[in-house]
Amino acid sequence: MKFEVIKKDGNARRGILTTAHSVIQTPVFMPVGTVGAVKSLDAFDMSEILDAKIILANTYHMYLRPGSKVVREFGGLHGFSKFDRSFLTDSGGFQAFSLRSNTKNDDGGIKFKSHIDGSTHYFTPRSVLDTQYDLGSDIMMILDDLVALPAEPKRIDLSIKRTIKWAKEAIDYHKFMQSKGVGLQQNIFGIVQG
Hints:
This protein has seven helices and ten strands. The chain is an alpha/beta fold. The strands form three sheets. Strands 4-5-9-10 form a four-stranded parallel beta sheet.
């Protein structure tokens, strides 16, 4: 991946982000394809009519249904959706946070119950990357410990420490996986909430 700043105006900037699948001018409108496709639009609509350069897919939802292994068998999100441009996948952490009555965070990750069938799952910095490797996204967001605001300073401090710890784990794991030939065209980004 390559990012080039092409224009600045004060603190604002305009750039070009080049991934394995597309060239994206930033800032960009990124349609949300929660389960790998934008509702009521197909790959032709996205490419030829909207001229979208990137779609956001949701790791939490893709993990639960249809499952990342199923998507991998179709050739990742690109083969599954037939959209041949870029994909960004979030970590699934926000969905676990938004369903917080069914979740419990600890130092290792996020334990949650599926909103579909009540089954229990555990997201870790490594497991969300494994899911995103299966999905084949161009940009993979790493897991963060999201906290509702307002919150006690102690909880905010814990969130920051966990998020940094998880980011280091994700970076190390991604480097290791790339040394094994996995995710060579995939890039990880950290998340900044709030």
